[in-house]
Amino acid sequence: MAETLADIRFAMAIILIVILPVVTCFWLVIHGAIGVWKQRPNWQAYTAALVAILITLAAILPNSRTIIGADLGHSLMLFGAGAVIYVSSFRLSSVVRRHLSFRTFAGIPEVADEDSELIDSGPFEIIRHPRYLMVTISTLGWAMMCNFAGVYLVSLLFLGALLLIIRMEERELIARFGDAYRHYQDRVPMLVPAPSKLGRLFV
């Protein structure tokens, strides 16, 4: 039984150290050069993101065991707590998806420089970036279930990159919506909801 659980945790660790860099590459390429992509056909942006992802995977996969690092052991309590945290992200995800289309998740309006409306309803009334909070929660829960040293390190690096991506995205949103977004920034926190509004984030 213990060996089976160790194998499951190891497989989960592999998944996480692959997915997090892939997500990071995609959004850094899209947001990092958004001014360029707006002047070019959409396929060029997504091709550049794909190339960056493939290069990153080529570097990660042969070294995955090293990256995962030391096994910090299996704890049913830690695994269970991580599972609860991870599952809670699904609830937030379902709420966010009611307000964001797949096109928005994929960054198409930014790349195509399309006209769009500022979304400030539902979970976006509580925090400005609920989808990134969702990703943060799911990453934390998954890392706790894995409980490998390298997975925690990769997760911390990812969350640092996520803050950079948010800053890039906010610059774009100010450029698109101007004072409307600045006023939105003034009244709505970025990632951490007010305690009195926390429950409303998941409904």
* CATH architectural grouping: Up-down Bundle
Counting copies of identical and different chains, the oligomeric state is: single chain
Helical content band: over 70%
Given the C-alpha coordinates, what overall shape results?
globular
Query: Mind telling me the C-alpha Rg?
Result: 18 Å
Name the average pLDDT: 90
Secondary-structure element string? HHHHHHHHHH
Main β-sheet description:
none
Q: Fill in the CATH topology.
A: Four Helix Bundle (Hemerythrin (Met), subunit A)
Task: Give the strand content.
Answer: under 5%
Please describe the topology of this protein.
Elements: H1 2-32, H2 34-37, H3 42-60, H4 64-68, H5 76-97, H6 102-105, H7 108-112, H8 130-146, H9 149-177, H10 179-187
Helix pairs in contact: 1-3, 1-8, 1-9, 5-8, 8-9, 9-10
How would you describe the overall organization of this protein?
With 203 residues, this protein is mainly α. Helix content is 71%, strand content 0%. The radius of gyration is 18 Å and the shape is globular.
Quickly list its features.
0% strand, mainly alpha, Four Helix Bundle (Hemerythrin (Met), subunit A), 71% helix, 10 helices
Characterize this entry briefly:
With 203 residues, this protein is mainly alpha-helical.
